[in-house]
């Protein structure tokens, strides 16, 4: 009888245990829809109760970096400035936003504002390389699990990351102070842009930093692509750290990732308005960005890499760093193309390098009356340890319009570029800055320059 009672007791306990589990087998107390509504409400409250707005930094997958200041208001409107261009940095603009329950609570900037500029599919607006994709930026964002947890626990949030819905860009939101709000609305981002542009224009063109000891580390700054990298010589070659993209702040360039050299690492470059210099902080120690008129590293180390893809000889009869022989040969080519049966006019010639494939593409701009055309020539190259180039015909060699212009351009391409060896180095002009120069080894009286991009 005791065994029967014991068995009945155990059975009752099991029923009770499983019954309890059935009542409490949900992870959350609320239904999913209730939980999502709560997150939406708390996210909205977090964003709209930041008294002085938010500093929002995004580094799109398509390149560059952007700093926005925005104040999201309880009437579903948002005021915004951005370092995208002069107008966006100086003229606050209002639009609307909403937070909707899509697959997850999502912050949506649903009418056009400055945050849409890098997202815009039109390449001429966004600065993207092709139409249809923009810079692969984002205009809709959802909170990560850490932020959701903080919101549900009513924890204070002064800095967090939201994730772009379409392109997955991690976007940093930081609360702004009253002083920062005033500075952003007064055009502070444009002031930073101008200060740094002035520093670059007045500093000798070859920038460097001395991070450890006295070795000069080349500091590569590119305003067009908003990138910074470091380059230094090692083991008879060049090592490049980066590039990192950057966004302007009120007094610095904030990098998308840290740049490192041995034991020094930094992700921000500051501007000191009093001394008008750029500097890096290593702990409390300032490392100032300096400039010199002499190259830190030879140009051939960089040809064919980002920012050093092309040397463009302009449409001119004379130019800084052009030899009499080159000018005479160019004039000969101009006459030959004009009288060669197609009435072509020789304009700029672009020498496009690809160091990975070891190729040079020569693109001659040859409009016919009011219709624009280009002639293409494909070359391979070899480069020795001293940076001396030897070019040869690729297969195919003649591209679009190459056949009808080969003879006309022979004084430059066929009779010099393809026959001689070349040193390609910097040429510094007091007005034009640093140019790239081709100089023949066999015929040193043949040399010419062009802009580097």
From TrEMBL:
InterPro entries: DUF4302 (IPR025396). Pfam families: DUF4302 (PF14135). It comes from the Bacteria. PROSITE patterns: PROKAR_LIPOPROTEIN. This is DUF4302 domain-containing protein. The lineage of its organism: Bacteria, Pseudomonadati, Bacteroidota, Chitinophagia, Chitinophagales.
């Amino acid at each position: 009888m005791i065994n029967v009672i014991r068995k009945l007791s155990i059975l009752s306990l099991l029923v009770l245990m499983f019954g309890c589990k059935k009542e409490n087998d949900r992870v959350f107390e609320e239904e999913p829809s209730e939980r999502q509504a709560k997150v939406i409400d708390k996210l909205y409250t977090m964003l709209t109760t930041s008294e002085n707005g938010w500093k929002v930094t995004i580094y799109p997958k398509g390149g560059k970096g952007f700093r926005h200041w925005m104040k999201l208001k309880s009437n579903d409107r948002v005021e915004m400035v951005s370092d995208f261009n002069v107008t966006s940095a100086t003229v606050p603009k209002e639009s609307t936003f909403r937070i909707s329950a899509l697959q997850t609570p999502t912050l949506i900037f649903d009418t056009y504002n400055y945050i849409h500029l890098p997202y815009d599919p039109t390449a001429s607006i966004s600065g993207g390389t092709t139409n249809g994709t923009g810079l692969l930026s984002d205009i809709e964002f959802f909170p990560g699990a850490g932020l959701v947890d903080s919101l549900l626990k009513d924890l204070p949030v002064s800095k967090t990351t939201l994730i772009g819905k379409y392109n997955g860009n991690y976007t940093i939101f930081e609360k702004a102070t009253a002083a920062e709000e005033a500075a952003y609305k007064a055009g502070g981002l444009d002031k930073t842009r101008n200060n740094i542009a002035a520093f670059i224009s007045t500093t000798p063109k070859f920038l460097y930093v001395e991070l450890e000891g006295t070795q000069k580390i080349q500091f590569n700054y590119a305003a067009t692509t908003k990138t910074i990298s470091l380059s230094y010589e090692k083991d008879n070659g060049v090592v490049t750290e980066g590039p990192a993209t950057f966004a302007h702040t009120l007094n610095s360039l904030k990098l998308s990732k840290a740049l490192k050299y041995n034991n020094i690492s930094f992700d921000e470059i500051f501007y000191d308005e009093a001394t008008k210099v750029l500097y890096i902080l290593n702990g409390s120690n300032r490392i100032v960005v300096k400039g010199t008129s002499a190259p830190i590293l030879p140009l051939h180390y960089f040809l064919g890499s980002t920012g050093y893809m092309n040397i463009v000889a302009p449409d001119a009869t004379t130019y800084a760093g052009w030899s009499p022989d080159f000018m005479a040969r160019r004039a000969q080519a101009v006459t030959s193309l004009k009288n060669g049966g197609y009435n072509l006019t020789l304009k700029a010639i672009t020498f496009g390098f690809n160091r990975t494939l070891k190729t040079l593409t020569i693109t001659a701009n040859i409009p016919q009356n009011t219709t624009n055309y280009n002639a293409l020539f494909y070359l391979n190259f070899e480069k020795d340890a001293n940076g001396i180039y030897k070019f040869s015909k690729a297969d195919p060699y003649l591209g679009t319009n190459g056949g009808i212009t080969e003879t006309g351009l022979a004084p430059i391409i066929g009779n010099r570029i393809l026959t001689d060896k070349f040193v390609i180095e910097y040429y510094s002009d007091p007005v034009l800055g640093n140019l790239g120069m081709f100089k023949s080894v066999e015929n040193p009286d043949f040399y010419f320059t062009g802009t580097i991009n």
